[in-house]
Amino acid sequence: MAWTWRFEKADGTEAGAGTDPEDFSTQGDAESWIGEEWKSLLDCGVDQVTLFEDGAKVYGPMSLHADEGAEAAEA
Predict the structure, then answer these.
(1) Digits of tens for pLDDT over the chain (75 positions)?
(2) Quick check: 49 and 60 in contact, CB under 8 A?
């Protein structure tokens, strides 16, 4: 099984990520990677990501932008 991320702009079109991660052998590895790299992806113009397992969509799109409502509640 191979787990992969699709990098997208806000409108759902594919975005260049500036990096080409390998396929991940587990969902946990893929999610750990995105947890470490999401800020770099934002800097490259990626707005959201979708996770696939062997080409089948698992979930997404998931925004990489901070939840503005949560930020306002913390202020």
Answers:
(1) 899 999 999 999 999 877 777 799 999 999 999 999 999 999 999 999 999 999 999 999 999 998 754 444 444
(2) yes
Task: Please tell me the pTM assigned to this model.
Answer: 0.83
User: Who's near 45: CB < 8 A, 6+ residues apart?
Assistant: 9, 15, 16
The order of strands in the sheet holding 48-53 is: 3-8, 48-53, 56-63
- The answer to whether 48 and 62 have CB atoms below 8 angstroms apart is yes
CA distance 24 to 35: 14
